[in-house]
Each structure stands twice: as C-alpha cells, then as structure tokens.
Amino acid sequence: TASPQITTTPLKHWIATKKIEKGLKEATSSVASAATATFAGIGDANNNGTTAMSPSKKQHIQKCVKIALFLVTNLAKSFERVPTPTTAKSNNTNSAADSFDDAAETEDDWEPKPQDIDEECITVSENALTGEIINVGFDIYKNFNWDQNLTEGDEDSSSSLFASSPKVKKLGLIFEALGKLLFKLFMDGEDVPTETDNATSSSNNATSSSIGNIIDSSSIAIPNEDDILDMLRNLPTAGGCESNGKMDHIISAMRGEGSGTGSGSSNSNNNNNRLPMPLCRLVTDIFHTSVSMKTSKDFNEVVYASPNSIMGGGGESDDRGGFCFDSLSDVRSDIQQMVDFPDAFLFGSINSRWELVFGNNHMFGRKTELQLLMDAADRIQNSDRVGNSNNNKTTTGATANDGDGGNNPVARRKKEVITVNGHAGSGKSRLVREIRKPLQARGWLFLRCKFGKMVQPEPLSVIALGLDEYFSSNAVCNFPMPMGSTQEQAVNSSMRPPSCPREVCERLETLIGLDGLKCLSQQMPSLHSLVESMYSHRRDSLNHISGGLQGKFHTHHLFGTLLDTLASFNPVLFFVDDLQWADAASLELLTDLINRAVTNFDGDNSSTNKILFAGAYRSDNIVEENKLKGMIREFEASDAINTTQISLCGFQLESLNEMVSEALCLPRRKTRSLSEIIHIKTQGVPLFVVEFLDALWTEKLLIHNPVDGWEWDVDAIDLKGISKSVAELLAIKLKNLSNDALSGVQVLSCFGSHVDVEILEAVKNYDWTSGTTLMPALDTAQKEGLLEKAGPTYTFSHDLIQQAAFDLVPVANRVPLLGKLVACLIPCCMLEGGSDSFLFVAVDLINRIGSEAVSENPTQSQLFARLNLEAGKKSMAAMEFSSAVMHFKSGISFLRTNYWKDEYDLSLNLFENSALANYSEGNHEQVVIQVNHVLSNAKSFEDRFKSHCVFINVVAIGSMERATEKIYDLLKHLGENIDPNLISAQVVITEFASIRGLLAGGQKDIFLNHYQMTDRTKLMTMKLLAMRVTYYLQQHAFMSGYLACKMIRISLQYGLCDDTVFALSVFSITLLNHLQDIDEGRALARTALSLAEFYDANQMIQRVYGFIYGNVLVSEKPLQSLVEPLLRACRLSFSNSHFESSTINTITYISRSWQAGKRLPLVMNEINAFAHQHKQQSHFAMLQLFLAPIYKIVSALSGISLDSSELLPQLVATCNKDIVETASIKKEMLYVTTAIALSLEESLSLRNFAQASQIILKYPDFFKMLENGRVRINQFMVAFNAGLVSFHMARETREAHWMEKGTHVVAAFEKFSKMNEWNFEHMYLLLKAEMHHTKGETNEAAQAYYLSAEAAQKHRFVHHSALSCELAAHYFGNVGLKEKTREMIKRSHDAYMEWGAARKAKAVINLLELKWLDGN
Predict the structure, then answer these.
(1) pLDDT tens sequence across 435-488
(2) How far apart are the C-alpha atoms of 947 and 926, rounded to whole Å?
(3) Contact 1383, 1390 (CB under 8 A)
(4) Residue scoring higher pLDDT (384 or 867)
(5) Among 491, 675, 1008, 1160, which lies 20 to 30 A Cα-Cα from 1346?
(6) Among 1299, 1219, 1232, which Cα is nearest to 1261's?
(7) pLDDT number for residue 722
C-alpha cells in the first residue's frame, strides 16, 4: 500500500498540472521580478541565463530531469534483460505472450513499440509534501510488439550486409519517440515544432535578434551573456554535422525564441521561459541520433559496433562531432550527470566553467579503495561497542590465550594501519585526504605530515609539525556559550568541547608535567604559543628548563602520550605522506607510536586503538628500502595489527573519462574520444592527466568555445609528443611563470618540500642584485596551484613540483644559490635564544654544498665544521643520535688537511662527540675507529680521557672484567692505586662506620656549603670510581660501598662535583643494608637530592633516583608516589644512552610498579617497551633473566600474551633452563637475586607452595633473613612472600622451622609498619592473619584477614587486597563458614579483575568454589 503522502499521476496530467501551477507562480511574482530587474541592471548572467531564472523554474526543471532519468533508466533496463513467458504473464502482458515459443523467440522480440513511448503509458509518483519525485512508472511490457516481423518497410532487409539494420532503425524510432516525449516534458506539454513554424517565428524576430540592433537600441535592456551566446549560435557556421542546422528550430523553441514563448515577452520573462542550453543539446542530440539511425545505409556508419551496444552498453566513440548517442545508457549517463551536478551539467552556472577544474566534487575511480579506508575507520569507531572479531587482542598486540578474552578489558581490539603505495602522481595523498571530511563530520581529528626528498635537518620535525596541526587548526576553543553563563564560566574546562586544545594541554601536564610540555613545544610552534599563554604565571618554571631538556624525557614517550591524549577525546587519523623519504629516526618513532605502551586515562586503556595510522609511499622509489619495507612487514606479521595495503595504478578508461567530463563540464560521451587519447599518452596516472590537459590548454590544443564549450582537435592531440614524465610537464608549466615567480619557487625548492615563513623571511633578500621580491613571488606561485600554505608553512603541492623547480636551477648556479641562502641564515644561528630551526636548516644547506666546494676557503670550511658540531650536539640533547652521527661525520668532512695540527680543538670535539654518538646509536665498530683517532692524536691524558670512558663502556658490554681492569689501570695513572684483592670485609665495615661518623647528625650540612672541585685529576678520578661503583652494584659486591666511601673522602678534601651526589646516594643504601641505620640513610638521601639541584638534573636523575626513590625512601613514602620518579630515571637512562644505569633503573622501576599494584595490562605494555629498548642496546642478560621471566608471570596472571613475533614470548618459549642457574653461570649476581625473587613470586601467585618452599630451601644464603630475622627494608617483597610460604608449609608439614621463619618475618614487618604504615600495614596484618591461622587462633585470624583487606584497599594496593581475600576465603572454607567464604571469593575475584589479572580471577573462582563450596 502506497504511503498517503505519495501521489501517482499520469505523466500527461502531471505536465498539465505543473504548467498551471507555474503560471500562477509567475503571475504572483511578476511584480517582484520587475522590481528586481530594475535594481539588478545587467544581472548576474551566465551562459545559459539560469542565474536570472527564478528558483521555482529551476526547481521545476530539476523535477523534469529527475522524471527523465527514471524514464530512460527503465527504458534502458528493458534492453538489458529478456523476459520469459512467466515474466511476461506476471507483468500483465497481452495474450500474444501465451503462444510464446522458447525455441523460436529471440531477444529482438522484446523491444517496445515506439508509438507506445508517450505520456499516456507513463505515471509519475511524487511526494505530496516535499514535491520530490519518487518514481516513474513505465509498463514497458504492456505494450510489447510480439510480431517477429521487424523488417516491415525495410527495403534493404534482404541484404546480409544489413542483417542488424532493422534493429538499429527500430531503435532510431525509439530515440525519436523519446526525443518527442522529453520535449513535451520540458516544454510543459508542447509538441515539437516543425522547421517551417520556427522559420516564420525567426523571421518575425530577425531584427531583434541582430547584434547591431541590440547594441544600437536604447529601448531594449543590455543583453546578458546568455543573449550573446544565442546570437553567436545563430551566426552561420563553417561546418559541422549535416543535420545540425535542421535542429535549430528545436533549440530556438526550447530557448524561448519560438512560437511557444511569444514574441512580446519581456526580457525577464524571456529568461525565465528559457531552458538551459545543456538540456536543449540533450534533446537535439537525441533527435540527431534518431536521424542517424533511421537514414543509415551502411551499418559501419552507425555508432554501434555490435548488438551489445544496443543492449545498453557503450559503443565506439562518435566521429561526427559528438551529436549522437552510442546507446540509451549514454542518454541515462547524460541525465544522471545533470541530476548529480546540476550547476555543471544542467544549468552550466559554475564559476569555473571557463577553467580546467579537477575533482572538486568527488574522487574518481577509487570507490573500492575509499571503502577500504572507511572500513578501517569503522572498525576503530565500532570497537568500543562490539569489539574486534579477529581473536582477542590487546592494545599492545596481546592475545587472550585461554579464552578469557571476553573478560579482559584490553582484549578484542586491533590496531589499524593502512599503507597506500603507487607511482608518483597516482593519487595516493588525495585518496587519504578524500576521507577527511566524512571522518571529521563524525568527530575525527585529521593530522597529516609529509616528508620531503631532502633530508629534514631538524630531527623528527616532520612528525612534530604533523601533530602540531591540531593546535594550529584549533588555536582557539570556539564553542557556543550556554544561555545565562558568564565569560568566566564559559572558559571553565568543564564547559569546553571534548577536543579543546586547552583541555588537551591540561591533561598532558598531568601526564608529563610542565617540563614535558615544554619539550614537546620546542618543535611545535602552535603548541608553544598555547603553553606560553596558559602558563604565563609559571614563566620562571618554563625558562628554568634548559634548551637541551629534550633529553630529559623520552621523545617517543612524549609524542606517543600526545597522540594518546588526542585519541582519548576523539578518534584520530594520522596520515604520514611520502614515507619513501622518511629518515631512520622518523621510521623508528612511527613504529614505536604504533607499538607503544598505552597511556591510562581514568581506566580507559583503549586510546591507542582509536588511532588510524595511514602511510603513503612510492612503490618505485623507496630510499630507506630495508627499513621502510621492514617496518611494513613487521606490521603485517603482527596479530595485533590489522594492516590494509592499497596499491594504486593509473585510472581505467571509464574513470579517466569521468574525470575529464567533470573537468570540462561536458557529458561523458562527448569527452570519450579525448579521454582515449589521454589514456594512451598518460597511462591514466592522475597527476599526469591533469598536467597533460593543462599543457593542451596552454598550447591551444584545447580551447573553449563560448557556444559549445570545450573543443579539441583529436588528430592534433594525437600527434603531440609524449612527455617522458610528469616532471617534464611541470617544468614546462614552471617556465611559463614570470622570472620573479620562478626564482621564488626555485628558492623554496632548495629547502625541500616545505619550509616555515620565518626561514623565508630570513632569506627574502638573498639576492640583492636581482631585485626579486621573494614573498610576493611565492604568493603568485600559490595562486597558480604550485604551492599550498597551511599556517606558517609553505608546502609544494607535490614533491615532483619541488624537484622540477630545483632541476630548473642551472647546475653551475646551485652551489652559489645555496651559499647565498646560508649567508642569510648564519646570523640567525648566532642569535642567543634563537630558534634551533635556523641552525638545522642552515646546516642542511651547508652539507648539500659539500666540503669540496669550499676546500679553497679555510675560514668557510672551519665555520661549516663548527656549525655541524653545534647541530650534532643539539641532536644528541634531543636524543636523535642518528642525526647527530650524520652531523659529526659531515663536520669532520669539512676539516682540512693536517686538521689535528691546524684545528686541534675543533677536531678533538668532533671526534669525541662522534664516538659518543655512535656509542649511543649502538655502532660499536665506529666507536673504536673514532676513539683510536683521538687516542692517536690527542695531546694529553686529559684530552684522551672522555674517549677512554666511552671505550670502557663498549668493553663492559662484552666483558665486565676487562672493563674493570681498564679502570684500575687508568686510576693508577691518576695516582690512585687500588687493589681490590687486598681489601677485606672487615676493612670495608670499618670504613662504613668511619664515614657514618663523619656524616652523622648535622655534619651532613657541610656538603651544602662546600666548595666545588676544580682539580682536573681528581675530577677524572671521581668519574672512573663512579663507573666502577656502577659495575660493582650490578654484582652486589660490598666494594661498591667501599669505593663510594673513597669518593666521599675525596669530595671532603678537594671539593664537590656531580659524582659526589652519586656517591652519597650509594652510601645512603649502604647505611640501610649493612648498618641498618634507616634514619641516617634517609637523611643522607635527602642531602643528596638537595645537592643534585646544583648540577645537571638531566644527569642526576638517571644516576641517583633509582637508589633514593627505589630503595631508601620506600621506608618513608607511599610506593605509588615513587613510581613516577623511577620512570623518569628510566627514560633518561635510555635517552642519554647511560646504559650502565638503565639496567638498575629498569629493574627497580618494574619491581616497584608491580609492588605498588599497577594494573597488569599497563605493566605488560611497559615490559614490552623496555624489551625493545634493551634489545637496541644488546642487553640480552636483562631480556633473558629479568624481562622474560616477569613477562611470563604477568601473562600467567592476566591471560594476556604478546604476539608470537615479539621478542619476550620467543625468549620464554626457547629458554627451558632455571633462570637462577643461568644467571649464576653467567656470574650476573644482580640477576641471580632478582631471578630468585621472581621464581618465588611466580610460585606463590600460582599457589605452587611445594615449588616455592623448594626455592627457599635451595638458596639458604639468600633467605638468611628468615633465620636471623635481619630483614632489610629493600628486601620487603621477598620477605613478605617467603613469610606467606612459610606459614602455609608450617600448616602442611607441621615442621617447626617453617613457623620460626614466618614469625621472624612478622616481627620485621611489625617494625616496617611502624616506620611506614601506608606501605606495610596491610602486609603485616596479612602475615599476622596467616600466623593466627597456623596457630589455630580463629577469632584473631578472621579479624586480621578483614583488616588486611581493608588496609590494602584503603592504601590502593588492589593486588594485595585480592590476595588477602583469597587467603581469607581459604581460611573461612577450612573452618566451614560458607557465607564468609563466598563473600571473600567474590571480593578476591573483583579485586583481581580490577588489577587486570583475569586468569587469576577465574582460577580463584574455580578453585575455591570447587574446594570449599562444592558448586553451591
């Protein structure tokens, strides 16, 4: 049943009704139209008079065109299918169908009779409320001609040559009937006029039609553009289609010049009665097609190459001027374009109709590829609701390996990475940009960065500017102010939109601090401005941060946190363009951003999965082939990443023709011949197509005719030579620029694909002799479409344009041009407090000039070497070691012959820093080469000292013993003869007590007022002793404390230095562990922190925070508050390549994070991130003996495992040996102790008490504290676990020694709890509960279990709350209290789930219910 809003009317009645309605509307609006004409004057005329056309008229025309589309669509479909007799009956066909014979009938039998294609058998369905055309009913089957004799009246039907001619002529009759019907439809029911009628009308109007009379007559309005076009059309033509003149009467009638409009109409009414010229051409071309078909004497003259073309497909191109249609499908295509793009194809009213415009409306030929992009976006956006069906994935590539994924809060989601590759100009960038609008409409953020062929001088600046796009495009938080709110209320963060940049900054500050924001903003101008404005009241804090503080935070972590923060508000599409030019550091950052650990936002750890990463690269030109392709292969192999690869090639002919049709605003059938030639010459490559057409226009091979639109000579274009590349076409285009504009573009090309305005301002007067004004020249190039400007940055529209522009600079002029630009930039590099961008850009230009070009200029060579040295140092500070290596290498290349003699200081600096940069990058062979240069040429031991230290660090990676021997040899050279074999334990203990006495009480204040050490020999001695202490700490040898005491004595005698702070922090641990003096240890740690403020915080944090925050302050501060300082120490250890401290800091941070109850999914992510860092440093002991075992524990508890391609799962799978035994064999004492602790932790977590008890008995020296009760506070976790195991074994075995061990631990924790209730109260209470349980003290045990769980929850140790409830459930089950057992099971399960231990939570339910509740 039809909707009551839908009315169905015969087309004949619909036309009559609309004619009456239109007449009424025109009558009521005539006065208004006259007034408008008076004020409008000449009006906004266009080539079809449609601007002057009333809106109601335009709306009516569009309805008629929609009816025509439905009609032609139905008509074309009738030729595409052959109905069966059953189909004919179901469609109420006449009785002739009943006698249908399958064997005799052919598809020709199903053609409609032309005389039946009229308004009598057609109905129009229209929405009565909106006026929208819903459908057109055309019962084509009701009027089929069942007579097979289709050759009636065809005199030539007997000839075999014309076997298909009857069908063609039959279709010609159908085209004629269709033309008459459409004329009636568009002309409000009027019949097609005869040529005689129109001739009389034209004769009556001849005077008013002449150009001269119009110009001379003052009584007639000034003609608009449409009038002129009509007059031009009526002028005699030089040639064309033979039938063209015979159709002028139809055009005149439809344009309002025939009898149908009346000669007395006013100009405005005449305009309003006109039909658009494209509509006139449509009807006349249909008549042309009919005439061509009906008069054909040779089948080859007809445009149909085969019967298939008649059945609705396309045919050969029309060689007769484009008047004829190939098929009904072509008619449908013409009308569809009018419906889809009325301004271009129906009314011809677009402003760019005289220009070549490409792709303004939609993307051509990439429907499948666009859908792949949108599908990836949909998976990201829908993952929050329905999850990802491709297994159970965590945000770090983890898999729920036991089916627990449904309960796992980080399961179900995959990361999405899309790569788009293709040849230059294939439309890779445009494809990704095409989804920008639809995604932004859905709330997405679109961020884009683009690499250039030239190496980006400033490290990671390309990616930084891409992220900064968010802040530049959203510089002000514009949002509607609620009714009644004040301005002060409006800026309140709670009233801001979710993606407000200010709120993003506020969240970032909570995650990385103000100094982290400062680091980020150093390469992000818009973010920098926002931070300065938001935190102006804290400007002192901002200014306090040194320019090199980029090294204070791990760069990858900062970038990733920013991206995660943006994604926590809105989904993000991060598009990286031209990846083939990306440097190694940027590729590494991109890899880490995709694989990075997830930042936790209020328990939401899915933010990383709200980022769609898209990268485009040239498949035929990959500079960093191994690294880029290796990165892509890594993503493809990962089960945690859903990788979509899109390969683009040139357009197919149909897509290309669609593109050309829209560019020229001509129907596709008319542009087909041109498109075929273009396709042959360009292979359909989009950029090549655009530039080829532009070249045709420039060379006058493509011209615009004011009457018929664009015209071309197919033969002339076919003879045009094929350019070798798009670059050749671009070069031709660039040469057509003015000299100033071309010079400006060439200057810009020297800087790469993009450059900031501040750089251009600095070089705008680079050539004072030419008079070129750079900025206006760039504006001209921007108008030509060669450049784009986004914020403060100019960017080439395509990198091929940049390359073509640079290639146009004569080779002989390139070095002088680069030299002029460098000369302009150098003064900016010397400005104090100036932007580092000037330095990096200048150095890039310098290195492209090369050392050979300035070999005869010693001053310039030295200057260029120094600038490279400065750029390398800044890259080191920014942790961009690969860039630093490159800059130092370039600087060395500018050194002249005999440089060690002539430029000693510069040479020493370059080689020293090059050794350090290569060490940081892991290029150990290069380190040895650079060190040997220094050791062979340095003038003194002091000058060789830094290189000695770097070399020792390299040796220590392979052999700690060799490194130790080297240190002691150097100490002898400095006057310190230390033989560790002569130092006994008693000597060490005596020295400990002596130093404690020197520093007791207020005597520590002497350090705060002491002078600084200036003796160079002692400074070097302190440095070597600090290195040896670090190595000893990894072996847990008491010699570390002894050497720290020696450093303290040297400091008291010769003054303080940064190594003094390190020595004090080490000795503060010695006071706790060996002398059990907790109070003095805390006081000395606080003194060390106070002294650290006088030195480089960048170095101090990484060296002392692990000792102080990870050990000493555990007795005083909440564990949760210690985690962040420890993380900062880890980041700095890696960023500064301080590999010695990175080992201790990593172990301390991971251990304290675990003990503080950090959520396991986050611990898993961080473990994986640390594994990647230590792998780069070749720390295989750390990977095998610490990170792999703790990964195994986390996986066992959470049910989460990393992708099998990751390193840690591979290590766990291949290592079957006992980790303690492995560490002992390798003499890695630090790992021996951690391995024992981890083994005990794993056994207890899995309730394998038998194995746990064997570990305690197997290593009596390690667990000596259980025998003597002397538990060190930094051993609290091992002691706590051992105490729980001891009480369990005491109940199981009834052996007294287990009870004794447990009691000693309780006594120790009673003391710890009094020192720091927050950290130790819940542990003490749980140990007490287990002790009471073992003794059978029921009431005391129950009370202690409850108090322990409450204390753990109160102090945010959720994992210990879960453990307390688990043990309590066992206890209550053991004594038969089922309700309390059930309560504790639920509480334990919920707490484990909150911690992220999904598998453990499930195991608790299964074990306890089975054991104590019997399923009830």
Answers:
(1) 888 888 888 888 888 887 766 656 677 888 888 888 876 544 544 444 444 444
(2) 12
(3) no
(4) 867
(5) 1160
(6) 1232
(7) 60
Given the DSSP bridges, would you call strands 415-422 and 611-618 parallel, antiparallel or unpaired?
A: parallel
Q: 1412: which residues sit within 8 A by CB, 6+ positions away?
A: 1369, 1370, 1372, 1373, 1374, 1378, 1381
Answer yes or no: are the C-beta atoms of 1326 and 1360 closer than 8 Å: yes
| 1213-1216 contacts, C-beta under 8 A, 24 or more apart | 1215/1184, 1215/1188
Within 535-638, residue ranges assigned H as helices are 539-544, 555-569, 584-595, 625-637
In degrees, rounded to 5, the angle at the alpha carbon of residue 512 between the alpha carbons of residues 521 and 635 is: 85
Contact (Cβ atoms closer than 8 angstroms) between residue 717 and residue 674: yes
Which SS3 state, helix, strand or coil, does residue 613 take?
A: strand
Angle (CA) 360-361-363 rounded to 5° is: 95
Q: Which residue has the higher pLDDT, 563 or 194?
A: 563
Higher pLDDT, 1386 or 234: 1386
- 1321, 1355 contact by CB (below 8 A): yes
Phi, psi of 577 (to 5 degrees): -100, 150
Helix (H) or strand (E) holding 910: helix 904-921
- For 1160-1172, the pLDDT digits (tens) are 988 888 888 888 8
In degrees, to the nearest 5, what angle opens at C-alpha 1134 toward C-alphas 1128 and 1138?
Answer: 105
What is the Cα–Cα distance from 373 to 435, expressed in whole angstroms?
A: 8
Closest among 1152, 1116, 1122, 1120 to 1316, alpha carbons compared: 1116
pLDDT per residue as tens digits for the range 1025-1047: 998 888 787 666 678 889 999 99
Q: Please name which of 482, 855, 422, 414 lies closest in space to residue 639, comparing C-alpha atoms.
A: 414
Is pLDDT at 647 greater than 60 in this prediction? yes
Mean residue pLDDT across the chain:
76
Residue 87's Cβ-count burial label (10 Å; 0-12, 13-18, 19+) is: middle
Compute the CA torsion angle 173, 178, 184, 185 (nearest 10 deg): 170
| 108 token code pair | 């020709």
Amino acid at residue number 490: A
Q: How far apart (Å, rounded) are the C-alpha atoms in residues 941 and 944?
A: 5
Amino acid letter, 1021 = T
Give yes or no for a contact between 1275 and 1114, defined as CB atoms under 8 angstroms apart.
no
The DSSP call for residue 1413 is I
3-state secondary structure of 787: strand
If we measure between CA atoms, which residue out of 954, 881, 870, 868 comes closest to residue 918?
Answer: 881
Task: Please classify residue 1157 by burial: count the beta carbons closer than 10 Å to its beta carbon, then call 0-12 exposed, 13-18 middle and 19+ buried.
Answer: buried
SS (H, E, C) 981-1023: HHCCHHHHHHHHHHHHHHHCHHHHHHHHHCCECCCHHHHHHHH
Q: Tokens 């002249």 label which residue?
A: 896
Left (φ > 0), alpha (ψ -120 to 50) or beta: where does 1208 sit? alpha
Nearest alpha-carbon partner for 747 in 771, 714, 778: 778
Contact present, 257 and 205 (Cβ < 8 Å): yes
Residue 223: what pLDDT? 40
1349 neighbors 1148 (Cβ within 8 angstroms): no
Given a cut of 80, is residue 31 above it in pLDDT? Answer: no
| Residue 708 CB neighbours (<10 A) | 17
pLDDT per position as a tens digit, 733-791: 788 788 888 888 888 888 888 888 888 888 887 876 554 577 888 888 887 777 877 77
Give the separation between CA 1316 and CA 520, rounded to whole angstroms: 37
Q: Which element (helix H / strand E) includes 577?
A: strand 572-577
Q: Which two tokens stand for residue 1061?
A: 């702070």
Tell me how far apart the alpha carbons of residues 107 and 89 are, in angstroms, rounded to a whole number: 17
CA angle 209, 215, 219 (to 5 degrees): 85
The pLDDT tens digits of the residues spanning 288-299 come to 888 887 776 543
812, 837 Cβ separation under 8 angstroms? no
Tens digits of per-residue pLDDT, 1286-1311? Answer: 999 999 999 999 999 999 999 999 99
